[in-house]
Design goal:
The protein is mainly beta. The protein has two domains: 87 residues, no CATH class; 93 residues. Helices cover 9% and strands 46% of the residues. It has three helices and 17 strands. It has a four-stranded antiparallel sheet. Strands 10-11-12-13 form a four-stranded antiparallel sheet, with no helix packed on it. The termini are far apart. This is Pep3/Vps18 beta-propeller domain-containing protein. It holds the Pfam family Pep3_Vps18. InterPro entries: Pep3/Vps18_beta-prop.
Length: 191
């Protein structure tokens, strides 16, 4: 399988090859080769505690295991109560460079190979561009572990492939977004 999920027909939609995957706090977020974000939430007692990328061996708190990602996607209707496919980008020549999921599973940052970056939180139905971050490829994010806000990341650090570190706070509130037009509350180079 070489770490990718081959297309599987599911309820009239096609789950494309996964290129990136993150799991945190019972949330699974994956990016596909067709620039689609897949987001799922597990139902207890199937709490995901860890995974291995090549075959996605999921370890659950009740010591049950799924050995392949194919089994996971195939059985989504039986084991998950939330499954969303969200378009990231319509540019066919652009691909996902990296995805990041905060420890609570609320906030997702998507970095594209073109240097365009996106944000989505668990309450949003589509990704929003991070306008101040243009032309930066994100390689790491240091999340704020004290954050208890589903609408804001609070202060976070973002590391780029150029060795730069930026501090920012990402927040989506429909009222403030439409007045300011930006997700980033600020964008400061720390190093």
């Amino acid at each position: 399988m070489m770490g990718f999920l081959h297309s599987i027909q599911r309820s009239g939609s096609v789950v494309n090859s996964l290129t990136n995957l993150q799991v945190c706090n019972n949330y699974l977020v994956g990016a596909t080769s067709k620039n689609t974000l897949i987001r799922t939430s597990t139902v207890p007692p199937y709490n995901i505690s860890d995974y291995v990328y090549n075959y996605l061996v999921l370890a659950y708190v009740n010591n049950l295991y799924w050995e392949t990602l194919v089994d996971l996607i195939y059985d989504l209707n039986h084991h998950f109560h939330l499954y969303l496919e969200i378009e990231i980008s319509r540019l066919s020549d652009d691909r996902v460079h990296n995805i990041f999921l905060d420890p609570m599973g609320w906030h997702t940052v998507i970095s594209m190979q073109s240097g365009t970056n996106f944000y989505i939180n668990k309450g949003m139905k589509k990704v929003r561009p991070l306008n101040k971050t243009k032309d930066h490829l994100f390689d790491s994010i240091a999340w704020n572990h004290h954050n208890v806000n589903e609408l804001s990341t609070q202060e976070i650090l973002i590391g780029t492939n150029d060795g730069l570190i930026f501090e920012t706070m990402l927040m989506f509130n429909e009222d403030s977004f439409f007045s300011s037009g930006t997700i980033e509350q600020y964008w400061i180079q720390a190093r």
